Please model this.
Amino acid sequence: MTILFFVSLGLYALAFPVLLLSALLRRQPLKKAGWALFVLGLLCHLGYFVWRGFAAGRMPLSSQFEFACGLALGLALMLAVARTRVNGDWIAVAGAGATALVMGYAALQPMEINELMPALRSFWFSFHIGAAVFSYSSFLVAGCYALRYVVLHRRGEAPDSRRMRQLEYSSYRLVALGFLLLTAVIVIGAIWAEAAWSAYWTWDPKEVWALITWLIYAVYFHIRLRGQKSGYWLCWYVILAIPAFLFTFAGVNKLIPGLHAYA
Model:
């Protein structure tokens, strides 16, 4: 099972430079080879995730390693879907690089399968953590679209061109999906916390940073819906918001002890 994990990591890591070269050189064979490596890595990754779930007897999302592995899988799945909507070479490059980095982070974490803590043995477990996985994945893919918009804008492409409008709108829709899922994470977490700890909100660091992330993206919607800023500015906002949820995902666990230290 561990070998399958590292095979998927290696395939993602190989796919990134091949896709990068294909985008730089505009070579169709390289593009097909890079995407084939990525899809093969995704299939191995999916197989590993299912295998680990059967071995653990639960959804494999309880530890930092498992969550990172799940996040990388969610990111790869969303990238595969997004690529069918916008056939952008550079979107695939950025997404493949991000997937390889998240998998690399997972590889640095303890990989043992442990029994669930009593507080985690709940009906809400899969819904709460599964929603977080796809929320963060949505924000990352939105950042890939936003990054492409910014690069094209700096190269002089007109903001009202069809490609630019499509990139900005795709980024917006993914942020909307991530925001909706993050809202579900917070609400489900509050219900679960009341059952586990007899309080809907405990000001645990993970809860606080999830709320901070939610507020950061809420400001994005406020600005966009009021039409106060250009697409270029909004895309920069999406890119600069990425560290907020990354800190919620990994930084809080490493730097600030709390009730969610196991996650």
Remarks:
- Residues 171 and 235 are 8 Å apart (CA to CA).
- The chain has two domains: 1-115, 121-263.
- The mean pLDDT is 87.
- Residues 162-197 form the longest helix (36 residues).
